[in-house]
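Follow-up to my earlier ticket, as requested here are the two runs.
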Amino acid sequence: MNAHQEPPEIAVRLAGPRDAALVARLLHAFNVEFETPTPTPAEFEARFEVLLWRDDVRVWLAETTTHPGGAALGFLLATHRPSPYHAGGIAQVEELYAVPTRRGTGVGTALMGALDAWVTRHEVGEVHINVDEVDQDARRFYERRGFSHLDPTALAAGEPAQMLCYVRDS
């Protein structure tokens, strides 16, 4: 994991249950921006009021230090699950969002740095991130941080194979 330092105007903190409405608004804005079907902010808030109490759910908030009250700049939502392959389990980045006006200014990097520090402290074995194939900006961002869509075992054997995520509504 790469050491990181947030730009001085960005502070990252772990969200708690009192942040449910803020995280809900950010997630709703993210879904609306990318034209994804979305629950209402109130529905998200009710869910985050429960999720943010859980030990296997982490939400980091990036906030500005230059405005009173620290305006929200973005968030990273991750879940943590056990795995027989790794004593420290596996983390899944569920969502990473920076407000449009702050993209490219270090918000995503600061949030990923917080995740990296947490993963290191908890000896998490792998971090998974699902990215849409067409989202070249996100793919480049994660690849710069060492993530790959190629199976490392197959790659080491000289037989590059893409890893895929299959999804089905239940």
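Run two:
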Amino acid sequence: MKFSKQMSESIKLGVILAIAGGFMDAYSYMCRGKVFANAQTGNILLLGINISERNWHTALHYLVPVLAFAIGIALADLVKIRTKNLTLLHWRQISVFCEAVILLSVSFIPQDFNLVANALTSLACGIQVESFRKIHGNGIATTMCIGNLRSATQHMCSYANTKDKEYIKKGLLYYGIIFFFVIGAVIGNACVEMFAEKALLIASAILAVAFVMMFVDGEKEQCK
């Protein structure tokens, strides 16, 4: 059965996911050895720098999250393909549930195993970036900002040229998601200072809220 509205593309769910995205990046960078959970461009850059300096062990700490992120994307696609006939749960609900469970497990991994912790966190981020790619039909990422910044600025330039207020609305939507990503980073850093590695329990709880929202709003989505 098809429905006209998809909860996975709602603004309020996008806000929750953006907060979680910012939280995860702040957590991995501040608590797990200066490695990014989401910003794989940064990890790839640091990977290249450490390879050039022959810091092989440090390079590995940036390579593994990149690979884990890619695996997370692949797993999300696999879940989509294998669960397309399910009626009880939508594949995106399964994805966000798995993401929350992964982050829950990472919060109990000690600092001596940061490589494993970062790999799992990036795996969860890969699942999220592949599972939730639109808000109100607009291609928006909740785990990174560079594409959102480009799109937001482009829409504002289009408004300046056409005076079509629809461009303003879309531009503000992109900027808003960036804002809540920053809020997530602020919350994440504050939680790390208070709870250290256990701070990721908060991000897991945020994703649990997202999971419940997809039920409470009663939006059984079409699988596409």
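The only thing I checked on run two: The beta strands are 134-135, 138-139. Let me know what else you need.
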